[in-house]
Structures are given as structure tokens and as C-alpha cells.
Amino acid sequence: MESEMLEGPNAEEAKEAILECDGIFVPGGFGKRGVDGKCVAVELARRHNIPYFGVCLGMQVALIEICRNVIGWKDANSEEFDSSSTHQIVHIMECDRHSMGANMHLGARDVHIVEKNSIMSTIYSGADVIVERHRHRYEVDTSSIDELRAAGVLFSGMSDAVFDPQTRVEAIELPALRFFLAVQFHPEFVSSPLDPSPPYLAFMAAAAKKEHRWPEACALRRLKPLLPPSA
User: Fold this and answer.
1) What is residue 223's predicted lDDT score, i.e. its pLDDT?
2) Which of 4, 79, 115, 188 is an active site residue?
3) Residue of 18, 35, 28 lying closest to 58 (CA atoms)
4) How many CA atoms lie within 13 A of 124 on its CB side?
5) Is 56 known to be catalytic?
6) Is 186 a catalytic residue?
């Protein structure tokens, strides 16, 4: 569904269609177009306990929606979309501002799974550190982490195990819901038929109401080294 359908005159009809879905996925992207509709999709997933998976911008709009409708910061936004907002939940980090033209956060980077009782820890088989590929410019403003935690957000993935001002948010969850996971990285960049991405696999299992099969599904990924080279 085009997210702009959730903003226009037929928004109620579009919302009814969303509520019939088994899962809601918001992918990455750039620019302001359709962002408010993406926030509506997040709100519907959160309020109606529909499995949600967000990637890159899909994580950023999830936090913007929570700030607007749970914390009460109605003007919460991203610096990319509204530089005048008093609550810029997403911004360009200060350490990146001095490299204009080269401030994209690109390539394979370590992601530290910092919460053991989390979806991230489960689907990555208890790993402390994973490597995932990135392609984004804007980051979550970590100065709002305390308020977001109080609103029920679990920060399960970070760029570093020890938090400091340059730490980047990599994954968030809402543990109170069946499945609500959003990541800043792009897990599809390292996914393949014989080694599928754990977040996508888990999201599909949740949408199919098969959450109890996460360990089994993720175990299938370990079969790859056992297969013959021609497989």
C-alpha cells in the first residue's frame, strides 16, 4: 500500500485495509513524501497489536510515532523533514556534520545486541555482536532515550556495547506487543535463499502466528555450512 493513502481523503478506507493485514512492514526511504502515512501505519500496528517490522526509515518513523502519540510530543519529527521542530527525534550526528557529501553511514558494521531478553537476541541465537550492512544519513537522537524507555521502548541493538554520545541506535522493540521490531540497518543486503535474514524470517513467522518457531527457523540458517558447494 502507498503510505500516502493513509493521509488523504480516503484514509479511513485505507486504515480498514491495513487492519486486515497479518503484518505491517515499513521499508527504508528518503524524503518527506508519505512519512505521516507511515506514522499512521506504525500507530495502527501498535494500537492493534499487529506484527510490525521497520527497516531504516521504518525504525525512525516508529520512534517518531511513539514520541507523538505515547510521550505526547506532537511536533516530534526528523531533522530531514522539519528542521524547526523542537523535538527532533532523528538528526545528523554532530560527528557527521563536518563531512558533507560523505556523511552517509555505509557498509558492514558491528551491531551489539545489548538486551538478552529480546527478539534480537532470540533470532540471532544469543549472539553478542552481529555484522549488518547500512545505508543511511540520519540517526536517532540518543538524548531522548530515557523518555522512550519510559514509554516502553526496548533498545536491543546499539553500535557499541558501552554507551557514549556517538553511540548509534541499531534496533528497537516494544516488548509489550506480539512482535514489534525495527532496525536501522538493512538486513536484506546480506540475505540469500540458503541464509535468510533473521529479522525478515521472524517477521514472517509472527505474521503467520508462528512465533514459537523462531528458534527452529533460525536454526535452518546453520544448515548452510553443511550443504555441498553446489547447493
Assistant:
1) 43
2) 188
3) 28
4) 23
5) yes
6) yes
